[in-house]
């Protein structure tokens, strides 16, 4: 416990979550955060997260359960979005950031509606990764039109 406090006050970035961060974990943590943001983590949203991770990353179907447990643990232990959004800012271009925001919208819309908390969180993430607002809106409109939901 004292070591963690020393790290906190010294500003050290030697925390395990920072050294082991990958694009897959950062994206998964943000996707999980969106699924929890409306206080109802729907099973369809979890299934959608798994589908997105398998489709966009090199995570096999046999490894997805273990990966999701790891991502959920990292998400639970995190006190902010910063480690995830910083990793994305350091490693992604605008097209990859746009694709992440589309994926976040896909998770939010999976239960048939976009809750105000989901909308707020995706907007916040979009701002934190410095995605232009026009791209945020384009991602939302593209996803809602594809799902047949009027916003």
TrEMBL record:
InterPro entries: DjlA_N, TerB-like. Pfam families: TerB. Residues 24-140 form the Co-chaperone DjlA N-terminal domain. Gene3D superfamilies: TerB-like. It comes from the Bacteria. This is Co-chaperone DjlA N-terminal domain-containing protein. It comes from Zhongshania aliphaticivorans.
């Amino acid at each position: 416990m004292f070591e963690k406090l020393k790290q906190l006050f010294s500003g050290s970035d030697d925390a395990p979550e920072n050294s082991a961060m990958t694009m897959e974990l950062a994206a998964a943590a943000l996707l999980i955060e969106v699924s929890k943001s409306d206080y109802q983590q729907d099973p369809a949203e979890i299934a959608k997260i798994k589908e997105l991770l398998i489709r966009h990353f090199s995570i096999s179907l046999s490894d997805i359960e273990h990966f999701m447990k790891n991502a959920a643990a990292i998400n639970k232990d995190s006190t902010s979005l910063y480690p995830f959004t910083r990793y994305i800012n350091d490693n992604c271009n605008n097209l990859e950031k746009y694709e992440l925001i589309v994926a976040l919208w896909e998770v939010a819309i999976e239960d048939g509606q976009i809750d105000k908390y989901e909308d707020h969180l995706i907007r916040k993430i979009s701002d934190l990764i410095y995605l232009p607002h026009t791209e945020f809106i384009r991602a939302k409109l593209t996803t809602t039109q594809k799902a047949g939901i009027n916003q």
